[in-house]
Amino acid sequence: MCLSVLFIENTKKCVEHTEESEQGKSVEPKIKSIETEKVVYEENMNYIMQGTQGLGLANNNLSKAKKSGFDQVDSGRVPLEFVSGKSSSSDQPKSNRLSTKVIDIPYTIIGKICLKLNAKDNMFYKDYRLLGEKMGYSKDVTRDLERKENPTDALLQLWSIKPEATVQNLIALLKDTDLERIDVATILENWVEGKGSK
Q1: ∠ CA 65-66-69 to the nearest 5 degrees?
Q2: CB 2: neighbour CB atoms within 10 A?
Q3: Which of 82, 116, 140, 151 is 20 to 30 A from 2, alpha carbon to alpha carbon?
């Protein structure tokens, strides 16, 4: 018999047992002692593990539950798209995204920003160095950033501890007449509008 069929059949048995007890029918307990309960628990965990592996759904949470003896259905690391009533950053309205802290911008967007601002502009300094200056950092700080593998990311991490480090303020800095990095501001504006990468 296929593992997924076993998994589904055992799930149906659990549902039927629950429905019978909810309807007031007398359901005799099948577990007579703690030792029997432990054996039944181990069998159920084996069925669940086999069924989820057969369906390609096995993960670390089930093995942790098996080891700990606790039911970890409400794990804190469930992706938001699987939680009803919750939305991911891609579903946020425009105003919410503008007030998003810089540290919470998705990596795909940060990567695009860093790619553009890490390229040094030794003529006009319209890169991470001038952005750092606009953020209020000294030339010593921006020179120190040059030694980093990803200076723009380091700058954004440094700036993110300040309360004004929001997407809206970053866009304003990028559009400043001295910096004029409309290409980078457009990446953020497209994300705010829900266009392109999320």
Answers
A1: 75
A2: 10
A3: 82
Whether this prediction's pTM lies above 0.85 is answered by: no
- Domains of the chain are 3-76 (no CATH), 89-193 (1.10.533.10)
Question: Is pLDDT above 70 for 93?
Answer: no
- The alpha-carbon radius of gyration of the chain (Å, integer) is 27
CA dihedral over 169, 178, 127, 131, signed as positive or negative: negative
Across the range 111-123, mean pLDDT stands at 96
DSSP state of 162: S
Helices (H), 31-137: 34-55, 60-68, 94-98, 107-117, 128-134
Q: What is the pLDDT of residues 50-90, one digit of tens each?
A: 655 555 544 444 444 444 444 444 334 434 444 444 444 45
Structure token digits, residue 5: 């069929």
Instruction: Provide the b/e sequence for 35-51 (b: ≥16 CB within 10 Å).
Output: eeeeeeeeeeeebbbbb
Q: For residue 37, is pLDDT > 50?
A: yes
